[in-house]
Design goal:
463 residues; D-Maltodextrin-Binding Protein, domain 2; 2 domains; globular
């Protein structure tokens, strides 16, 4: 019996020990689970605490509404917001932009970015240049484009940031960045040339010979919308007769520049071109009737006119001769095998010196040269000066924007900005006189003397 009691006690002891062991294990497991849970919670809290919140920033952009419309800017702004988290773009787009943003700027509130080219009627951009009120943008060229691996300078067509417009102080520093560009040159009816078996002139001597041939058939060699369109022709021609260095000297009013053999050659060509111009042109060369001069090309009453790619849209609904199709060429060369130039108009974008978000503004400007932004703009015909854009175009735009792929050189820049000189307007003096050359009211000598006088007056006023 004692043996049986001992066995029973042993059995009970084993059960008690087993129970204790089970309780201990469960406690350890529960403690382990609790620790793991706490560790996970602490890790989550640590991660949430270590990640800084995205900074909310507002970028104020003011842009001139042109034929491209406002919607394209809204689309580009939305795309930029996706590229740069936390940024909200506040857009002001208006056809009378200077009137809209002028009052707020007078009270000290400036947009971060202004898209407004030089040459506007009220001269707001020129005023900012003259007053040294722009942020330098040279460093934008070395910035990597948001969403890409290329820098801005690697994407841009060469030459666009080496002009008297983008670098207005002649010090190698960039203050305005290039935007939508439009090659200019001589537009003609390619269908007429095919019908007549005529070759497009490649030299000015060939141009005069064709003028005589066309005159015999009652067709003038030349027409122009208004005298203002001679800026593109004159700038390209100066590059042809003297090269880029000569052009730069002329644009900066170098003393004696208009008495050089190169300048004389340019004046001779334009004066001769005036003699080959359709005689009705001066009467219609104004903002109300300029399309009548452009219509001369569509009606086969004149062969060539200087213009930009926008002319296709301007004359889109106009009647035209049977078989008409647009042709486009650079200026004829001065000599056989010489350089041929096509002047490029381009718009500009810039940052006021008092912009609150200059660094963010630079980031946005860099983004404008991305493939994404370029393709958005291209949908409405606004072509950015990006190296790869011409290969993505078709139709007339393919013809126009491929002109530099066909051997023509790009001419860019304009007369340098100066402090105001009362009674002197170099553009009016140089280009406005063309009507008088056509009618005979002014001689070439009169014209050259007036240009020289204006240039001499502006030289001391250079910025």
């Amino acid at each position: 019996m004692r043996k049986n009691v001992s066995l029973a006690l042993a059995a009970v002891l084993i059960l008690v020990l087993a129970a204790c062991g089970s309780t201990s294990n469960n406690t350890e497991q529960n403690q382990s689970t609790t620790n793991a849970s706490n560790s996970s919670t602490n890790s989550t809290n640590s991660t949430a605490t270590d990640t800084p919140p995205v900074e909310e920033r507002t970028l104020k952009i003011a842009a001139l509404e042109t034929a491209y419309g406002a919607a394209v800017w809204e689309e580009v702004a939305a795309a930029f917001e996706q590229q740069v988290p936390g940024v909200k773009v506040d857009l002001t787009i208006d056809k009378n932009l200077e009137d809209v943003i002028g009052p707020s700027m007078k009270s000290g509130e400036f947009p971060d970015i202004i898209h407004l080219a030089v040459g506007q009627p009220k001269g707001l951009t020129e005023t900012f240049i003259k007053d040294n009120n722009m942020t330098e943008l040279t460093d934008v060229l070395s910035m990597v484009i948001p969403g890409e691996t290329e820098t801005v300078s690697n994407k841009l067509i060469p030459g666009f940031t080496e002009t008297t417009i983008t670098n207005p102080y002649n010090d190698g520093k960039t203050f305005l960045m290039p935007m939508f560009y439009s090659p200019t040159g001589l537009f003609y009816n390619a269908g007429l040339f095919e019908q007549k078996g005529w070759e497009v002139p490649t030299t000015w001597d060939e141009m005069w010979a064709l003028g005589d041939t066309a005159k015999a058939e009652g067709i003038a060699l030349f027409a122009y919308p208004t005298t203002g369109y001679f800026d593109s022709l004159f700038y390209a021609l100066l590059n042809e007769v003297g090269g880029a260095e000569f052009f730069t000297k002329a644009m900066n009013y170098t003393e004696g520049i208009w008495q050089t053999p190169e300048a004389s050659q340019a004046f001779d060509i334009i004066t001769k071109l005036a003699s080959y111009t359709e005689k009705t042109v001066p009467a219609n060369a104004n903002k109300d009737n300029f399309t009548k001069n452009q219509q001369l090309i569509l009606d086969n009453k004149a062969l060539f006119m200087p213009n930009g790619t926008w002319v296709v849209g301007e004359m889109g609904e106009a009647p035209r001769a049977e078989g008409f199709k647009w042709g486009f060429t650079a200026l004829p060369a001065v000599t056989e095998g010489g350089d041929r130039y096509s002047y490029t108009f381009f718009e500009q974008i810039w940052v006021p010196a008092k912009a609150e978000n200059a660094d963010l503004a630079k980031q946005f400007i860099a983004y404008l040269y991305s493939d994404e932004a370029g393709e958005i703009f291209a949908k409405v015909g606004a072509i950015q000066p990006i190296k790869t854009m011409s290969s993505k175009l078709d139709g007339d735009n393919k013809l126009f924007y491929s002109i530099y792929d066909s051997g023509a050189k790009a001419a860019m820049g304009a007369f340098a900005t100066t402090d105001p000189v009362e009674g002197v307007n170099i553009s009016d003096t140089v280009f406005g006189a063309i009507d008088s050359l056509v009618t005979g009211a002014k001689t070439q000598q009169d014209w050259v003397e007036s240009i020289t006088k204006a240039s001499d007056a502006l030289r001391p006023a250079l910025k």
